[in-house]
Each structure stands twice: as structure tokens, then as C-alpha cells.
Design goal:
Length: 662
């Protein structure tokens, strides 16, 4: 025998009535239907009664209670924040009582009281899914439930909360003060949601619904009017626009570190904790946070306890040569990444004019056509506003302008990690360089720029690792331009200067205007990045730069420059011959020596580590306290969009280590 309770609000629905009639005619499972509706005009095939009556009846019959509800199910957290969740399979009576306090849980608080009071095993079934015929399978509430799914069953959030603070020198060691505070609040008809007090006893904090904050303050000030007059109690204050985030689960009692794990995840999501409280039962931890960061906090904790797939929510600005290559690689790798526990979600793609956005995910193979058709104008504000609604937002800046790096702090404050091959963020003023790192540290964001120095070669990370291990940079020299490495290599093979430049352009090794490479400023920026990473306070203007072109060629327009390139062939042939007579080759080298940076052409002999580097390779030699007299050498292909894009992908993957729970 089972007892089924159906709300009057859904009993009038024809599908519900048909399923109930079907259940009544199942001889194998006899049942009694109880509803708070008026008697049916076609016959009293159900019993009229309250839910308390239904629970008491089930308890007296020692049978299970089945409750058909108008909710969509009972979920681990608000479905409006996290989509695609499964219903909670089972709850203990105590877990259900904790969970019912939240209106977004799908569990009606008015139903839980009788269930817990009578200790009656209950199956909560969404009416649309009763008998398994719809989307919901239901949640079983009983004395003990299976905790194999993890220590946490649910995460709830209650908004519109204020925290009232009572502080003063009369509080420490004073007996009965707390009782007076809460007695005054109670007499004012205000319910207290959470209480927190440090062992110093200097202050008492408690949370109430925001609408009751002023009433609570007035009641306390009346009760303590004499203490306030004597200045031993401060005026009572309140913080508004807060929320209580509660993590619930019986399994937390046997699991160490749940509170620490929650706090760590909130810190990584840049969510400040205002107060924290935990009952002696250890099945619920409540954390007070800013109301505006509810979604970010819930999503981050849900990800930590319930998701095995690590998310990447990608926002790409700049879809030229490198950006397009990146999207092509991601399109090929999405399935492979999913098989390795990484959920790649391309949220937005933008160029300087327009953008496309879909928080559910853009097609990495069809973005170009969508962007061309888009009528949405590019807006940094719109893109930064996406951050709070994403699990692991990552901005990838594939532009070459100063505009986007200036907005990195805004993206970080909105929750974005930043990955970029754009050198401008690290080669602006020293003040900007330091500020970016301070913002990233303060907001617990990753700022990754490995590809700004040598495309896919792990230069920055290796240098940082050496410095973290106590090493120090004595000197550096390297070939940092894949395009110039290719060009000088072709010259050494007998090609003319003009032909080598045009070939490098045709292969996509240079910027659209090759003078951007030939002038040496790009290499100077890379040297500046390495110098600053090594701890040197240096500006771009401090680096001595000698480019490969006469200054008058820099003033020409692009077409005229290309037309006059052959005029330089004879001069370059003479340079090569002079170097060859000395047994040397020409290399465009960036260096750091005695705290100074230099960029320019250098003749190097066979004994030099850079002698054999050509054909688009990059090579970097670091002489350090640990690596001396033999330098630490990195060498590899450094030209082309595919290599750079691969390095960007590697940096994107590094954001996962920042978000992964150890």
C-alpha cells in the first residue's frame, strides 16, 4: 500500500488525472490518493485532506508517501544558474530540512515539516514525470541516503539579505548580552537567518532578510540605549545586498576540508567572504557573500563538487592570421579535449568592428560566416559583462593594438583569465606592467603571455621557473624573430635580400607590412619582456635598436618600399661577403648584458650557440648563476601562425590548473 498526495493546483491537469487513474487501477501496487482539492464531481476517487493528513496516514500504515509536485524536480542548485543538472536521487530527512529553506531548490518547505516529523519515507515526483513518463524521475527522502556521489548534495543561495553588526567594548565577557540582542530582535518579529561571532566576543553579527534590517537595528538600539549613551556600545550597523550561500550534505561530517575547499573556490572566483557559519551537525556550511556574485559563487562550488569536466569559456578578440589559426586548431581538438575531461566552450568571437556571442557555445568551424553576418557592434563592456555568468572565462587577445591590453584589468575584475600573444600589455610603461600583475594577483586571475616572446617555445615559463628556484640572469642573447631568422637564413643560402623579404611575406612569416619586422621594434619588445621578467626596471626607449633598413625607407608607403627593395640587394651581398670572409654568419640578435638591452645585426662565428640557427628557428641562450659557463639554451621553430596558435592553446590549458581542485 502506498499513499499519494497531489496538490489541488495540478490535480485539474488532464495528464495528471489520467496518470493517477492509471495508478489506481494497478492491482499490484494498491494506493490511496490524498489531495487538498474539493471532492471530484465525477466521484470521490481521492481522499480530501491536508499534506499533514497524508503524511500521518502513510506513517500509520508504515507505507511510503509519494508526493506529486508542480516543480520541475529537486536539483543540486538553482537550474537558472547551472543548466543540464540531474535531479538529486536521494536526501536524508535532515538534508531535506536544510535544503527546504531555499526557495530555488525545488523542495517545498511546507511539505518537508510533516515528512521529517513523521519520519515517513517519501518520493518527491514532478507531476510531469510521475511513473517515469516525463523528464523527472524524482527524489527519495528517507532516514539514510547513499553518499557515494560525494559529500555535498546541494548548494543553495538566498538573496536580499542584510548582516547586522553589534560591536562594543561592553560585549567581551558580558553574560547575557547576546540573549538581550536576540530577544530584542525576536520581540520585533524578525527571524534570524544566520549568526556569527568571533571568540574575541567584541562583535556579534547576524543575518536577516533585508526588509527587516531597519526594524532589527531599531529594536537593538532601544534595548541598548543606555550602553550607546555611555559609548560602550557602538551604533548598530548593517551591510545590505548580501546573500547566504549554503553547502549541504550528510557526507561532509566524514570528509575533511569541505569548508576550506569552498572558501578556496570562492577566492579563485574573486568572491569575497563576509562571514561563515557551520552548525554542530556539520551537514551545512553557510557563507555570506555579496549578492551580485551569487551566480559566480554557486557555479564555482558546483563545478568543484559535481563536475568532472573542467570548463573553458573562451572569448576571442582578434581573428586575423593567428586568431583564425587558433580557432582552426580548437575546432580539430574539441572532441579530443572532451575525451580528456576538458569542456571547451567558444562563447564569443570579435574583431574591431563586430562580434558574435552565444553563452551556450559557438560552432568553432562556422564562426567566420556568423561573424560576417553579425550586426552586433564590437563592445568591450558587453564582453566583460559575460564574466560573472561563466565558469572559467578566458580572454584570448590576438590583436596587435594597445586598445585591448588597456582593458585587461576590467576583464580580470569580471572574472576572466587572460591569455595573449599581444606584446603591448607587457611593453607599455613600467607602471602599467606592474599594475597588470597586481590586478591579476588581487583578483586571483591568470595572466599568461608565453607566445609574446618565441611563439610556441616555453621561454617565459622556463625563465620564471629558474627565478622561482633562486637563479638570477647574468646575460641573455637570442634570435627572437622567426621571420628574420628565415630571411637571414635564405640570404646565407644565396638568395637576394629583396627576394628573401618577398618569400617571407608570401609564407605569412612577416607582418602585413614587413618593415614592422625589419625595423627591429618587435624584437626589442621581446627583449623588454624578458628583461622585466628577470626583474629589470626598463622602458622600451631604454633598448638600443639598430634595424635592417635605412631610415629613409621607413618613410615610404608600403608599395613604394616594396618596389625599391632591390636597391638594397648589393649592400646586403657585401655584408654577407664580409661576414663569410671572417668565417661568420649574420644573425639578428636581441641581448641583455650588464642590465642593458640591445637589438641589432651581429656576425657570429661557429663557436656561438646562434651560428646554426636559421630557417625560421628561434634560439635563446640564458647565462645565469646556475647555468654558467654553459648557458641554458632553448631552440625551436618560431615562425608562422600555427606555431603561435599552438602556444596559445598551451596557455589556455594552463588556466585549468588554476581552477582544478587539488
Amino acid at each position: 500500500m502506498s499513499v499519494i498526495f497531489v496538490r489541488a493546483s495540478i490535480l485539474t491537469e488532464e495528464p495528471v488525472r489520467k496518470r493517477l487513474e492509471h495508478r489506481l487501477h494497478e492491482p499490484a501496487v494498491p494506493c490511496i490518493v490524498v489531495s487538498d482539492a474539493a471532492p471530484d464531481q465525477h466521484g470521490a476517487w481521492f481522499r480530501c485532506g491536508t499534506f499533514d493528513d497524508a503524511a500521518a496516514l502513510a506513517a500509520s500504515l508504515d507505507s511510503e508517501l509519494e508526493v506529486w509536485t508542480d516543480s520541475q524536480g529537486i536539483f543540486p542548485c538553482d537550474p537558472a544558474i547551472v543548466s543540464g543538472m540531474r535531479e538529486i536521487a536521494g536526501l536524508s530527512f535532515e538534508e531535506a530540512a536544510e535544503l527546504s529553506r531555499s526557495g530555488s531548490s525545488g523542495l517545498d518547505a511546507s511539505l518537508v515539516g510533516p515528512i521529517v516529523r513523521y519520519r515517513v519515507p517519501t518520493m518527491m515526483v514532478p507531476a510531469s514525470g510521475a511513473n517515469g513518463s516525463g523528464p523527472g524521475c524524482g527524489t527519495r527522502i528517507q532516514a539514510v541516503t547513499d553518499a557515494s556521489g560525494g559529500p555535498v548534495k546541494a548548494i543553495t543561495a538566498s538573496a536580499a539579505v542584510s548582516m547586522v553588526s553589534v560591536t562594543g567594548t561592553c560585549l567581551p565577557g558580558s553574560v547575557g548580552t547576546a540573549a538581550r540582542v536576540f530577544s530584542a530582535v525576536s520581540k520585533a518579529g524578525v527571524g534570524v537567518r544566520l549568526i556569527s561571532q568571533a571568540s574575541s566576543e567584541y562583535s556579534i553579527c547576524f543575518c536577516v532578510d533585508q526588509r527587516d534590517a531597519s526594524t532589527s537595528i531599531a529594536a537593538i538600539e532601544r534595548e541598548f540605549s543606555s550602553e550607546i549613551a555611555d559609548a560602550v556600545l557602538d551604533h548598530v550597523g548593517a551591510m545590505d545586498d548580501l546573500a547566504i550561500l549554503t553547502v549541504i550534505g550528510d557526507g561532509m561530517r566524514q570528509t575533511k576540508g569541505i569548508a576550506g575547499r569552498c572558501c578556496t573556490q570562492l577566492a579563485r572566483a574573486d568572491v569575497n567572504i563576509v562571514a561563515i557559519a557551520q552548525g554542530s551537525s556539520e551537514r551545512a556550511i553557510s557563507i555570506v557573500i555579496e549578492q551580485q556574485k551569487i551566480e559566480r559563487g554557486v557555479r564555482r562550488i558546483y563545478q568543484s563538487f559535481f563536475e568532472s569536466t573542467l570548463p573553458i569559456d573562451l572569448v576571442l578578440i582578434g581573428c586575423g592570421t593567428v586568431g583564425s589559426a587558433l580557432l582552426g586548431q580548437l575546432a580539430m581538438q574539441t572532441a579530443w579535449l572532451a575525451g580528456h575531461g576538458v569542456g571547451l566552450n567558444l562563447v564569443a568571437v570579435a574583431n574591431s568592428r563586430r562580434m558574435i556571442i552565444d553563452q551556450n557555445g559557438l560552432d568553432t568551424a562556422a564562426w567566420k560566416e556568423q561573424l560576417q553576418r553579425s550586426a552586433e557592434t564590437f563592445s568591450i563592456d558587453t564582453l566583460t559583462a559575460l564574466g560573472p555568468g561563466l565558469s572559467n572565462p578566458v580572454l584570448v587577445d590576438c590583436t596587435a593594438s594597445d586598445v585591448i591590453p588597456g582593458s585587461y584589468p576590467a576583464f580580470m575584475r569580471a572574472g576572466f583569465n587572460v591569455v595573449t600573444p599581444n606584446k603591448r600589455g607587457n611593453t607599455g610603461s613600467m607602471e602599467q606592467y606592474r599594475s597588470l600583475r597586481q590586478v591579476a594577483l588581487r583578483h586571483h586571475r591568470r595572466y599568461l603571455y608565453e607566445t609574446t616572446v618565441a611563439a610556441g617555445l616555453p621561454v617565459v615559463e622556463n625563465l620564471q621557473n629558474l627565478l622561482h628556484a633562486g637563479d638570477s640572469l647574468d646575460s641573455f642573447s637570442g634570435i627572437l624573430s622567426g621571420s628574420l631568422s628565415f630571411l637571414l637564413g635564405r640570404l646565407g643560402e644565396g638568395a637576394t635580400f629583396s627576394a628573401s623579404v618577398r618569400e617571407a611575406m608570401a609564407r605569412g612569416f612577416t607582418e602585413p607590412d614587413p618593415r614592422d619586422d625589419l625595423a627591429g621594434i618587435d624584437v626589442a619588445r621581446k627583449v623588454l619582456i624578458l628583461a622585466r621578467e628577470a626583474g629589470l626596471s626598463m622602458e622600451l626607449s631604454d633598448i638600443e635598436v639598430v634595424g635592417l633598413l635605412p631610415l629613409d625607407y621607413m618613410a615610404l608607403d608600403k608599395d613604394e618600399f616594396l618596389e625599391r627593395l632591390p636597391e638594397l640587394d648589393a649592400e646586403w651581398a657585401a655584408r654577407l661577403s664580409e661576414a663569410a670572409r671572417a668565417g661568420a654568419v649574420l644573425r639578428f640578435v636581441g641581448s641583455i648584458e650588464s642590465g642593458k638591452g640591445r637589438v641589432g645585426l651581429r656576425a657570429v662565428g661557429p663557436e656561438h650557440p646562434l651560428f646554426s640557427v636559421k630557417g625560421g628557428e628561434n634560439a635563446l641562450a640564458f647565462s645565469t648563476r646556475y647555468y654558467s659557463p654553459v648557458p641554458f639554451l632553448l631552440r625551436g621553430y618560431g615562425a608562422g601562425a600555427q606555431v603561435t596558435a599552438a602556444g596559445i592553446v598551451a596557455d589556455i590549458m594552463r588556466t585549468l590548473n588554476w581552477n582544478r581542485e587539488d
